[in-house]
Description:
Layout: H1 2-45, H2 53-68, E1 72-73, E2 84-85, H3 90-129, H4 134-149, H5 161-174, H6 179-192, H7 199-214, H8 218-226, H9 239-248, H10 251-256, H11 270-281, H12 288-303, H13 308-318, H14 332-357, H15 370-379, E3 384-386, H16 388-397, H17 416-425, H18 432-437, E4 442-446, H19 451-458, E5 464-468, E6 472-476
Helix pairs in contact: 1-3, 1-4, 1-14, 2-3, 2-16, 3-4, 3-5, 3-13, 4-13, 5-6, 5-7, 5-13, 7-8, 7-12, 12-13
Amino acid sequence: MVADAVGAAPRETARTRERGRLRLLLEREALIVVSLASFALAFTLRLVGQVNQDAWLALAAGREIGSRGATGHESWTIWAHGVRLIDQQWLGQLVLFRLHALGGLRLVLAAHVLLTVGAYALAAVLARRRGATPLQVLVLLPPCLWLFIFGSWQLRTQSFSYLLFCGVLWLLATRPLSWRLVAMLAALLALWANLHGAVVLGAALVALRGLVELGRRRLSGLALLALPLALLVSPYGLELVSYYRSTLLNPAFAAFVNEWQAPTLGLQTLPFFGLLALTAALWRRLDRFELLALAATGLAGLRAERNVVWFAFAALILLPRALELREAEGSRRRSALNAHLALLALAGLGAALGGTLAKPVTAFETEYPAAAADAVAAAQPARVFADVKYADWLLWREPQLRGRIAYDARFELLSREQLLRIYDFAQPYSDAWRRASAGYDLLVLDARADRWPVRALLKQRGVRVLYRDAGLVVASRRPPPPR
Length: 483
C-alpha cells in the first residue's frame, strides 16, 4: 500500500507538470493557435470542392503504377499515345492510391488536411524557433494563409511538398554547414524528387546556400552545389532532365494554362505583392541566404501563379523575426482567457473535421456525378472527347475507357498545337470545337466552361443527350441502337 502510494505520487506530479506546460504553451501561443485553427476550419469546410482533375489523375496514375510499374509509354489517351511517359510524381501518386485502397476518398482527404495544415503549423513553429515573437508571427499568418486558400488548396500530389519545403528551408536557414547537413538535405531532396516537381525549387534553395558558403568553406559549398543531382534519384534517371525542361520551360503552359501565368494585382493576389513590398523594406535586416531565398521564391511567384504558395511559406518562416513589433505585456487573466479560446477553437476544428469526413463520399464528388460516368460506360463509345476536368475522372471510374479518351490533364505530353486546340475549343463563335472533336462519337463537356460548344453541339441533327445537369453534359453522335 505504502509502495503504491509512493509510486503514484511521482506519476501524478508528472501529469500535473505536463498539464502545466500545456497550459503555459496555450497561453503563450493562443492567438497563433486560434489563427491556424480558423484556417484549418475554413480549409476543412471547403473539402467538398477540393477534388478535381489533379486528384483523379493522381489516383488513376497510382493505380497504374501499382499494377504495371512506374515506367512505360503513354497508353491512356489518343493524342499522346506512344509518347515516352516520365511520371516524376510516381511515388506521390502511388501513396495517394494506397491511401484510397485503405480508407477510400475520406482517408485521402484527411491526409491532405493533415499535410497542409501541418505544414503551416510547422512554418509558424519554425518562425518561433528562429526567435520571432508570437505577435510577429501572427501579423504574417493571415496573408500567407490567404494566398494558400485562394491558390493551392486542391487535393494533389503537391500536398506532399509543403512539409518538405518547410523542412529544407529550415535546415538551410538555421543549421551550420556540416557533412551531416549535406546528408540530410540529400535524403530529403531524393525523397521529394519522387513525390512532386516543386523539388526543383528546393534544389535551387540548396544551391543558393552553396553559393553563400562557397567563399567560406569551399569543399562543403561545392557539395551543396552538387546536391541538385539528387533530383535524378528516380526510376527515370537522366530522362527527368527533359521532363523538367518540357514543363518548367514550356512557353505554351504560360500561354494556355491559367495557373502557369504570371499573377496580376487583385484581391486574391494582393497579399503576395504586399509581402514582396515588405521583403523589400526589410532587406537590410535579413542575412544573405534569407534574402536570396525570399528573392528566389518571390521571382518564382512572379513568374507563375502556382508558385505563390512557396513564397508564402518562405515569408512566414523567414520574415517575422525581422519585424520591429513590441509585444504588450498581458495580464494573467487575459492569458488564461486566450488559452481557453485556443482550446475552444481546436475543439471546433475537431468537430468540423469529424462532421465533414463523416459525410457520404458522394458529397465530395458533387462535380462528378456517378450517373454521368454510368451513361458514358453504357454507351460503349469507340472514342471519347472529354473536357480536361472529366477525362481523368472517367479513366478512374471506367478503366475500360483506356486508350479511347482524347487527352487528359498531363499537358506536358502534348504538343503546342494540341494545347492550342484545347485553348481554342471553347472560344465563342468559333468552329474550333468541331475540328478538335471530329471523329469522336461521345462528348463529355463542362456545361459552364464549354458553353459555346455545348450550345452548338446540341443543335446538330442526330445528337442525343445521355446525361445533363447544371455542370456536365454527355452527348452522343451515334444513332440509337435498334430495339
